[in-house]
Amino acid sequence: MLSRWASPNTRMGKMTNPNAVDDGRNAPTFRWVEPATILALFVGSLYYLGWSYTDGYFQRIGLRHAIFNFSTTFYLTQSFWAASLSWMAMLFLLSGREAPKTKLHALYANLGLIFLIIPFLLPGTSEFGSLDFYIGLGFVVCPVIAIVWLSWNKKSIGHLLRQAEPVIVLILVIPIMTVAARTIGEFHGRKTIQGDPQYTYTVSFAWKEAPIQELEGKELILIVYQDSQYYVAIREKPAPAFPKVYVVPVDQLKHAVVSRIN
After folding, report:
1. Which residues lie closer than 8 Å to 120 by C-beta, 6 or more apart?
2. Assign residue 124 a region: left if phi > 0, alpha if psi is -120 to 50, beta otherwise?
3. Which of 36-40, 166-170, 194-198, 236-240 has the highest average model confidence (pLDDT)?
4. CA-based, 20 to 30 A from 256: which of 15, 65, 89, 231?
């Protein structure tokens, strides 16, 4: 009599609850939540590193980059230096997940911290005695102390964080690399004003009328060209603390010649 009233699924040996919800329909959604979150965090961190680098670069030159309305792609491409150091640091830190057996092994496992302090070792990134100088000094001294202490006690950051996901390590690294990205930007900005070949393009103008007197006979560094205007600075070495940037509209020119310094 029971089989007479049983559902077809019950007769086939499947005890099915008719009120149950098919979780399989939601599986694809939950399956993609974590990768989507990781991707958003990754792209967001690259954007912020690029923004910090650009901010440091233009602040050193004497401009605010917000006036240029740069695209998201631009900021992502500017994150290269800081992002490279971040991934090298993570590679070392996550490679030391096993407990170090010797002090030398612990030292190797903690070398990832070195990549976090490289930007603060660049020469001339801040003036001696300034607030930026002491902040940079702190970012150098603290990781060095951590490396020595951890290595001496046969410990590694990777081992201490062995239960943490790489995303958690990235979250810990990004704040440091944000400051590092700004520092690298300031360094490249100073090199640009000085006319170092690796970072610099020069521009010369053929004027329709009398040239701007301060620019006459000077070697001009091209900062950026946007909205039919050239943003230029006079090449100076060493770079002054507050360089002057000149804005030259194209309607004042016959033509302009841009070339890279060799």
Report:
1. 136, 137, 139, 140, 180, 183
2. left
3. 236-240
4. 65
- Mean pLDDT calculated for residue range 202-224: 90
Those residues whose C-beta lies under 8 Å from the C-beta of residue 179, and which sit 6 or more positions away, are 52, 135, 139
Q: Alpha carbon of 221 to those of 26, 35, 107, 161, 241: distances in Å?
A: 57, 44, 44, 47, 16
> Do residues 96 and 159 touch, judged by C-beta distance below 8 A?
yes
What share of the chain in percent tops pLDDT 90? 20
pLDDT grade for 134, boundaries at 50, 70 and 90 = low
Q: What's the farthest any 2 CA atoms get from each other in the chain?
A: 108
pLDDT reading at 188 higher than 80 = yes
Query: What strands, in cross-sheet order, belong to the sheet with 201-207?
Result: 245-249, 229-234, 220-226, 201-207, 253-260
Whether residue 78 has pLDDT greater than 70: yes
CB distance 41 to 170 below 8 Å: yes
Query: CA dist 130 to 8, 24, 31, 127, 134, Å?
Result: 81, 60, 50, 6, 7
